[in-house]
Amino acid sequence: MAKTKYPCVYQDAKGRFSYLIELGLDKVTGKRIQKKGTKDQLGKRFTSAKAAHQEVMRIKSEYLKSNGFANYDLTYEEFMEQSYIPHYQSSVQRSTWSSRECGLKQITSHFADKKLREITVLDCENYRIWLLSQSGYSQAYSSLMYGMFRKSLNYAVTLQFLNENISMRTKAIPKGKSVVAYWTKEEFEQVLSVVYKNDFYEHMCFVMIWLYYMTGVRVSEGLALNWNDVDLKRKKLRVHHTLDMKNQSDFIRKPYTKTESGMRIISLDDDTVSMLTEWKRVQKNHGVEQFILSYTDLPLYRSTVQRIIERYARLAKVHPIQGKGLRHSHVSYLINEFNADILVVSQRLGHSSPEITLKHYAHLWSRNDEGIAKQMTGNIQFTFAKESKIPNFSGNQAVKI
Fold this sequence. Notes:
14 helices; Tyrosine_recombinase_XerCD; alpha+beta; 3 domains; single chain; hpI Integrase, Chain A; 4-stranded antiparallel beta sheet; Integrase_recombinase_N; DNA recombination; 9 strands; DNA polymerase, domain 1; Site-specific integrase
């Protein structure tokens, strides 16, 4: 069964639509209440995902009303635990849920026993101010938190618990400008020079840093790479997977990337091909034959990538960067060393259009006009007139000739 864009609605291999709804817990037994079906209330099979979604909304609304939840005594905490959180968890990917769960709990505890219908514009504004000035969160995370709070009230409107989303009367929190640190070619060379490649683990660290810098793949894309994704003869790297990992015994190699355009094939340079060829042989001698970035034949943790980068940055005495900073570094390398075309950069990064690439990386083209400026020097040829061609000047009277 495949998910559709509508929460709780699925489509099977034959194209048939169905729904599976979580309605909270039974008050008597404590068991989860689920409803599923392939037909609407009139007994007709769903002809589209939207039709199934409409039936889902009808069932949820009727169930909540019949169980006395849609009343003036419903607290925000009850609404979140019984309605919104189960809905949200069922409508997003596991990795998204894992990263949002803590934030949703914080929002729930902040309003807790406040009755849903009694939340005011002032309550919303006070929460907004708290996020920005007292929470200790970054502006980007504060923006995310307030956005999740607004979405929860939108869902309350959908279920007819509220007539309007009162938080929409307040301003959203802007994400703020995020500047991602990256390494120049010289800094990258400094980092490589402190790696001891004769050690198996350090050799893996070298391969990891090199591969991210020279291909620009996202962290989760790199962690998911298997040897069957590389064609060393044709010098191609296939990026068609991402890694969703809780621990080394619970991970999923998802058969898709962050966006549809992220499904791509990247051309490899000869140095990278040579490096990978050697690494494949070394890995095989240690019984590792599946994941490229591995020393145990199990995928690395995302946090391990960050620790490796920080360790070698410290040894090389260069500024530390994030995992995604190596992606930025790749873009900088292509632009500053090879004056790479925006379309080529966009395709290597897996963006759907050059406009997206420019949105995130335009600042890296800041020196791209230096060559043009040199070519412009002395290109315009002329000589000044030896005498004025305007014999009788009759302009501004304050100017004396």
